[in-house]
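User: Structure please.
Assistant: Input sequence and predicted structure:
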Amino acid sequence: MKRGGLQNYIIRRLFYAFLIAFGVVTVTFILLRIGPSSPADKYLANISARTQDPAAVVEAVESRYGLDKPIHEQYFNFLVNMARGDWGWSFSTSLPVIELIQRHWVYSFQLILLSMLFASSLGLLIGIYSAVKQYTKTDYIATFFSFIGISIPNFWLGIMLILVFSVQLGWFKTYYDTGLPMFSLANLKALILPVITLGTGMMAGYTRYARSATLENLRKDFVKTARAKGLPEHVVIGKHVLRNAILPIITIVMFDLAGVVFGGAYLTEIIFGIPGLGRVSFNAIFANDYPVVITITLIGAMVVLLTNLATDIVYTWLDPRIRYD
């Protein structure tokens, strides 16, 4: 692929990504602001036993944060401040949104990264080995457990893991300890159950996709030619079969990343008490803390858009026949 064609394609995709991100922010803002509750409602519980007038407190809070203005004016001010780098103030934590993200993003990042590595590496290896050993006991066992892994909800699996390995056996804590050093064996041990919870379903899916893609390529003529030349089996599988089979799997992995960011990681963080962006967003939704919700939603959307762009670029490296110009 010509360099100029790739550059033009990247520019176009980044422009579309900007439009999509703008749409995500707009829709999220409107849905949150037209809701029946107000960010000021959380203050009412604190004054229920006092003599203060709840209506006066709500009015004062909304005036302080500009929530008493028309929604179109609130939206315009929010976009202007966002363009300046001011992502707003968290109503529920009384912290700047940027500071809140900086405190909690690393917990989500380590969980998602380790889960994706766990799921993709084991899923690919088991799927390829299962395809090479087709119709053997190993293949049947891998297929059986992959169906089970896909069928089990990750939140149920997380609860069962806590009950067995934390409550009954006492091997792990029932909650995530934020006091552990980030780069330590103790922290890695604390993430074992969350990573298994989040990665099991994805690993089962990757096993099925890898097996199917490998079987499809094992029947191709170029594989027969490579074997006829006398190439070792590990070279045939690793160089010829894997490189062609991995293309559709990359797409699945990237799409799963969207599901992990918006769904699976949220539930896993809540179950294990991990103070990541998922748990922060979950609490912010119930507090109607829309600056936090919008920012985390925008981060998730940008992750999806940029990973999809990276997938297309990797495609051109793995398969020179793919062109975008």
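The chain is about 75% helix and 0% strand.
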